[in-house]
Amino acid sequence: MVEPLHPTVAEVTARIESRSQDLRAGYLEQLGAARAQGRARGRLSCTNLAHGFAAAGSDQPPLAGLQWPNLAIVSAYNDMLSAHQPLGAYPELIKAAAREVTATAQFAGGVPAMCDGVTQGQPGMELSLLSRDVIAMATAIALSHDMFDGTLALGVCDKIVPGLVIGALSYGHLPTVFVPAGPMTSGLANDEKARIRQQFAEGKIGRAELLEAESRAYHGPGTCTFYGTANSNQMLMEVMGLHLPGTAFVNPNTPLRDALTAEAARQCGRLAHAAERGIGDMLDARAFVNAIVGLLATGGSTNHTLHLVAMARAAGLIVTWDDFGALSAVTPSLAKIYPNGSADVNHFHAAGGMGFLMAELLRGGLLHPDVETVVGSGLSAYTREPRLAEDGRVEWVDAPAQSGDTDVLRGLDNPFAPTGGLRVLDGNLGRGVIKVSAVKPEHRVIEAPAMVFEDQQALIDAFQAGRMNHDLVAVVRGQGPKANGMPELHKLTPQLGVLQDRGFKVALVTDGRMSGASGKVPAAIHVTPEVADGGPLGKVRDGDVIRLDGERGTLEAQVSASVWAMREVAAVPTSPPGYGRELFSALRAANNGAEAGAASLF
Ligand SMILES: O=C(O)[C@H](O)[C@@H](O)[C@H](O)[C@H](O)COP(=O)(O)O
Ligand code: SF4
């Protein structure tokens, strides 16, 4: 029996629609005007058009005419991200498949893709969040040739899918289908990887053993198998109807994966022929509420308290952290994937994956069922999963009605927790977020003296000097978007995890970010206003008692109001030149802050 739409889901949707009314109306007007201009190529001069198909070979005749729609391939391929390396082979597969539905496809442009695993703890991480907006701009540049009637977006990882969505929404009248590569096969278990890292942090093993373990964890093409931001993106693309159903977690370089890529191209061609609606029409308030529910039900990455807000803004919608908080209170936790548990996304997929999850959320009235998707109206198609048919194409079958492993994936009748494990924090240190789904209950409320650090290395040095063997709240500040680009501080997880395992009460408070793969240590992150904007985190001094209450959602420095009022906000060093950081000073200066999506575009 399917429950009626949950009242909180309806209420949050209504308040997003209400506060966004004028912005959304203006955005839809822009889409209507673009659509009214007809087939893109028809607006070009003969000279423009000839330039556009000069190198198109046998596709020149259909491109010279206007009967066949032309699809833009916007790709984040590179060899650096294991998740994107398989994308290199996709364009030729896509072009051939498009022709089967009398459409052409051209590689319209590449977008940059940073690997947060390579840059974690390194200076390059200071470009990572800012790269999301650069990816959005690069997507618009690719589409600006005005040769296209549909978009195929090839990308998976952290900032790439959000950037591609934001960029595609600037051409929101075009149908857009996302095409992933899928997760690498399972290697060293994620919790074993984390245990070995803590041994290295304590000096119990050397670099050779650590590298050997890491190489067994990250061993081949495909997305890393923990449930971080990249795999949260994959889940979101299904819930938002931007993927073909069940495509998220099919491994790369398999016949089914290639069949799905070809079918995505054909489906985009069909949508371009119909020219009825684009990604901007599809991604309405309901789609974003569904996305937040999917994130909460699966314990997804905290980075989406930034990215989903920025993505929604690109569609003319204003989403707030309080919307996340309200939905978290009514969304049960149905999946336990590392760092929320020990399983990885391959286990999740095998246990029933997205098809089972969507069926449960729809049955509970937790998703708007009647949204538009790239395979038509309604989400019921997403309760099915792809199989390779006899003819080598894709067929869809019902997902299992029961979870294949209730340690990884559960139904509404026995959730891991009654709520979604994301809390909004408020108090005299500002506002922030905390993901408690990966934090044991006994560690969710921490009251301890502050140790203040201006950068990650200072904390690592203090740990190695043995100065942290006590209860503490590590305040790592000056890590906001305007200061140094808001890096992830995930590199601190092993040290803080060792202190927690030694029995100390430990928490992290920062205006920076953590990785979607961060977990067991309670972390109040995205604290806003950031210190570089005069945020109160800049008033904290060593020894101040700080209380982080992840259950009640409070973040307080227990300092008298009179002393607090007298304190100056500490100055924070800004990003030094080098690593290209100096090229991003305008983006940092224009950043609109964590709660508004930490974007420099709007
Ligand atoms: O938000 C995320 O999911 C992270 O940015 C992730 O993409 C990053 O790669 C982590 O650093 C991987 O985890 P390890 O660094 O622990 O391998
Ligand atoms: S999941 Fe993270 S570490 Fe893995 S390829 Fe993507 S960005 Fe790199």
From TrEMBL:
Highest rank taxon of the organism: Bacteria
Cofactors: [4Fe-4S] cluster
Binding site for [4Fe-4S] cluster: C157, C224
Record's function text: Catalyzes the dehydration of 6-phospho-D-gluconate to 2-dehydro-3-deoxy-6-phospho-D-gluconate.
An MF annotation (GO) of this entry: phosphogluconate dehydratase activity
GO biological process, one term: D-gluconate metabolic process
Binding note for cofactor: Binds 1 [4Fe-4S] cluster.
Native organism taxonomy: Bacteria, Pseudomonadati, Pseudomonadota, Gammaproteobacteria, Chromatiales
Family: Belongs to the IlvD/Edd family.
Pfam families, sorted: ILV_EDD_C (PF24877), ILVD_EDD_N (PF00920)
Assigned EC number: 4.2.1.12
HAMAP family: Edd
Dihydroxy-acid/6-phosphogluconate dehydratase N-terminal domain: residues covered: 69-380
Listed name of the protein: Phosphogluconate dehydratase
Domain called Dihydroxy-acid/6-phosphogluconate dehydratase C-terminal: residue spans: 407-598
GO terms for cellular component: cytosol
Entry keywords, A to Z: 4Fe-4S, Carbohydrate metabolism, Gluconate utilization, Iron, Iron-sulfur, Lyase, Metal-binding
Gene3D superfamilies: IlvD/EDD C-terminal domain-like
Reactions mediated catalytically: 6-phospho-D-gluconate = 2-dehydro-3-deoxy-6-phospho-D-gluconate + H2O
Pathway(s) of this molecule: Carbohydrate metabolism; Entner-Doudoroff pathway
